[in-house]
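Researcher: Here's my situation. A collaborator sent me these components and asked whether they could plausibly form a single complex. I don't have experimental data yet, so a predicted model of the whole assembly would be a useful starting point for our discussion.
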Amino acid sequence: MKFAVCINHVPDTATKVHVGPDGKSIEKTGVNYVISPYDEYAVEAALRFKEKQSGEVIVLSWGGDAHKESLRKALAMGVDKAVLLKDDSTRDSFGVARALADYLRELAPDVILFGKQSVDYDDSAVGIMVAEMLGLPSAAVVVSMEITGGTAKADREIEGGHEVVEVQLPAVFTIQKGAYEPRYPSLKGIMAAKGKPIEERQPAPMEAKVETITMVKPPAKQAGKIVGTDVGAVPELVRLLHEEAKVI
Amino acid sequence: MSKYQGVDYYNLDDLLSEDEILVRNTVREFVDDNVLPVIERHYEAGTFSMELIPKMAGIGLFGPTLPQRYGCAELNNVAYGLMMQELERGDSGVRSFASVQSGLVMYPIFTFGTEQQKDQWLPKLASGEKIGCFGLTEPDFGSNPGGMITRAERKDGGFVLNGAKMWITNGTIADVAVVWAKLEGEIRGFLVEKGTKGFSAPEMKGKHSLRASVTSELVFQDCVIPETNLLPASGGLKSPLMCLTQARYGIAWGALGSAMACYDTALSYAKSRIQFGKPIAGFQMTQEKLVHMLTEITKGQLLCLQLGRLKDQGKAKFNQVSMAKRNNVYHALEIARMAREILGANGILNEYPVMRHAANLESVKTYEGTHEMHTLIIGEDITGIGAFV
């Protein structure tokens, strides 16, 4: 069985990002990049499916050369093959989905996995768009799944509960934190990954459907205010919560 | 607290390869997830975290520079050093475990052992199924190991060992001890398995340092081992010293990890601790301390990195390893103490790692060649005059 995992290379969630001088992209210097955490669950899921029923895991990423770092990590975790759809242009979810779909059409995997969202722009869109473009069934926000023959049963997280769905393969799944806590790449895996090539492909030119106008950081938190230290402060506290903060 | 991001004031990552960075980041994450959550509890209880052994083995932390045919990763020395740095950011005891297993047990078996000994032990030591220890130091022979009194005598196609070793990391929990003893006046290495008659390894208690590590005595009383347990290629004091050079190399990197943990803690504490209406990081005396800490860490990183590159080229001299061990441990201890000062009274609490690192580094400064001995090793090298023999 052939498993494809699409991963994104994103700023580490622990990194403080700043808006760049153009006002619509982030300042990249001094930012640590990692595999988007939900995509890492997807890599882990694919590796476990492969271990259970054999097959091949191919990981792909759309972006610049820097994405090779994340592809390399996926190889070190045990993925068989890595492909970079090399494009340095500004990303647009539709354009990325189209580039991925073009390649995936040719690759024809049985299972296509994404993280439920990429933690940089948080569109939660690419995986589902790819499914639509390929005319494949999809299940989003999957916490665990089982593959039996040509079907997959996926446990989805929904508001206030879970939903179990069944789809015919090939199909697309977007993975949520759940059953697939990612493994550490072993030191042996890291050394083995050195020898595995990363295939580079030139996707069709990016066709952006959405243009970013501006990017701003949320306003800085203001220092707290001590209204008083005894019961006498309560009326004033209530007044401020009601009139200034407007929360009660 | 925010996630640890490492210390790299001089963009030294630019000097590292992709796989070296990946090794470091993997071990860093491993330590965040598996060591830091349990280490204070073990330190307080005076126990080694046995559950760490299979986890460490799982990602390949034992004997990682040895060949793949023994189940090892075949890392270069820089990647190995970075791994030690990250382990010691967790705790010197955890790094000690890996140092002993790798540099002091697997290395001598690989270097001085027979094919049969290598095949028997290395894969099991790499997988963590077996634990090893290294017996050189004796109660009365520390800096002067050549004076050791432990003896081996040939008897009925085997050897009889008599003597005692002290300060042996992992001794009590080890399945196999690499023991150095004099055979017909020459120091040789022997493998002694747990449970051999006449061999015991009681744990040493009452330590105020390296509390999350097992330290033991090894006692040999007419302990009979088969002839096949001699490491045949070992001979003379040079053999155990070659092992110590491996371990000291790892310590030089490890000490940086301790220092980084202390610096990182002190920096974030200083930025959030308010006195006299402003963060203490805004006071000149605090800034001087932080700058000193960071400068010494950066110098230590450069020392280790070049030493690792030399080692990979087969050009590193043991005296150079002495310089890195001596310098980095000295400054790591100084940094730990400075961090404790910046944290004030909070510095003594186990809510922060600095007091534990400071206490650990007191041992690290002395073991694997004391600060003083390393001074004299380098002194002899540059003057041509030995000051200790």
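Model: Some features of this prediction you could bring to your collaborator: The radius of gyration of chain B is 21 Å. The mean pLDDT of chain B is 97.
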